[in-house]
Amino acid sequence: MATFIIEGGHKLKGRIQPQGAKNEALQILCAVLLTAEEIKIDNIPDIIDVNKLIALLKKLGVKINKIGKGSYTFKADDINLKYLESAEFKEDGKGLRGSIMIVGPLLARFGKGYIPKPGGDKIGRRRLDTHFEGFINLGAKFRYNKEDLFYGVEADKLTGTYMLLDEASVTGTANIVMAAVLAEGTTTIYNAACEPYLQQLCKMLNRMGAKINGVGSNMLIIEGVDKLGGTDHRMLPDMIEIGSWIGLAAMTKSELTITNVSWDDLGQIPNVFRKIGITVERQGDDIYIPAHTNGYEVQNYIDGSILTVSDAPWPGFTPDLLSIILTILTQARGSAVVHQKMFESRLFFVDKLIDMGAKIILCDPHRATVIGHDFKSTLKATTMTSPDIRAGVSLLIAALSAKGTSTIHNIEQIDRGYENIDERLRAIGAKITRVDGN
Ligand SMILES: CC(=O)N[C@H]1[C@@H](OP(=O)(O)OP(=O)(O)OC[C@H]2O[C@@H](n3ccc(=O)[nH]c3=O)[C@H](O)[C@@H]2O)O[C@H](CO)[C@@H](O)[C@@H]1O
Ligand SMILES: C=C(OP(=O)(O)O)C(=O)O
Fold this sequence. Notes:
EC number: 2.5.1.7
Number of strands: 23
Keywords: Cell cycle, Cell division, Cell shape, Cell wall biogenesis/degradation, Cytoplasm, Peptidoglycan synthesis, Transferase
Number of helices: 14
Family: Belongs to the EPSP synthase family. MurA subfamily.
Radius of gyration: 22 Å
Catalytic activity: phosphoenolpyruvate + UDP-N-acetyl-alpha-D-glucosamine = UDP-N-acetyl-3-O-(1-carboxyvinyl)-alpha-D-glucosamine + phosphate
CATH architecture of the largest domain: Alpha-beta prism
Low-confidence stretches: none
Bound molecules: uridine-diphosphate-N-acetylglucosamine, phosphoenolpyruvate
Organism: Psychroserpens algicola
Helix content: 25-40%
């Protein structure tokens, strides 16, 4: 278990370039299984989850060449399906959430797809029904081994159909789309998720020869094709990292420029930060955050009632930024409610913020009321353990704003999704030391 030692209370300054998007990368990498032709992908983040998926694809027989930082070619022309039945695969597949998305492409191209219960953050129930109901709708036979927690789908052929998803699952929609592009006939997916990750996936699949209409909406109409070909793809900047750096700048009263953010793909993100009083300035394709020397003031609604920040499927506000919003609210002028609708265990990390002196009432597992200090009292340094990726980064931001030296254990949770975070933050003035565990 590695650890960060953080000396808080220093202002940061400078420019930071967001990495390529983690959740997009996990989808895009799985899509290389859909063709025997070469696919070149740029801006792949160098993070634990993505590297685990690349290693898994390699074991599946995908030929992988690293051609530069974040740039790889992939060629899935000789897939080793036996690996899917190995004990090794049962271990590898469990290591991350994104591995679930190999199932759709494997089913579509080779007639079978297996996966052990995938990993990812322990932030509440994370069921997979939407994925498998989608495959069943396309004509696949499903089985689940309860002892091994091992899922499997098989089909001689997939046939397009109409389906109404029970929830707009992000990875579920990606998985079903990747199966449907090679199905016979037309598939309509209603209540589809439409995060930029999915829009990017659909655009890439269309460049490979797929026929997907409705990209960016909650109804995708997919006309199946016999075969897909190669393409080039570049990952968008990671919008969750961008939100994390906005929060970091505000809470440490630092002046930061977040470069090349792909503004038009950020949806509600800039506005939600503005609602809690943070100045988010557009400069070309950069975000400029001035030093919030006089703090930031939470806006009320027009009728004067208290602000609630909650998540919703895209184009709603992403649940992956709520932990960061909650953390920066602890120093806001005013109060707000954070309502995490999707995941029931994601707010428990507030205990650590309360230990640091934050004023938070956890109303129930989904809702917390935060009463901001307006910097009249700084958070106290402490020792904590990162429970999940976004709570981990939130605690890191809290520690950077706190008085004294904090310790965060289990930072592998942070490394799962943030590339070289300590080095990149040191470059803008943060005092962070990484101590490797045994
Ligand atoms: C690898 C990856 O891409 N992970 C992301 C993906 O996870 P993932 O695809 O696993 O998450 P899902 O979209 O399936 O949904 C997660 C949870 O939210 C609930 N749910 C979902 C849709 C909905 O309309 N209402 C609702 O309550 C589901 O019941 C489920 O419990 O999407 C999540 C939701 O944006 C993000 O937090 C994860 O970072
Ligand atoms: C919950 C997240 O990731 P995963 O789905 O990989 O656990 C996240 O990125 O915030």
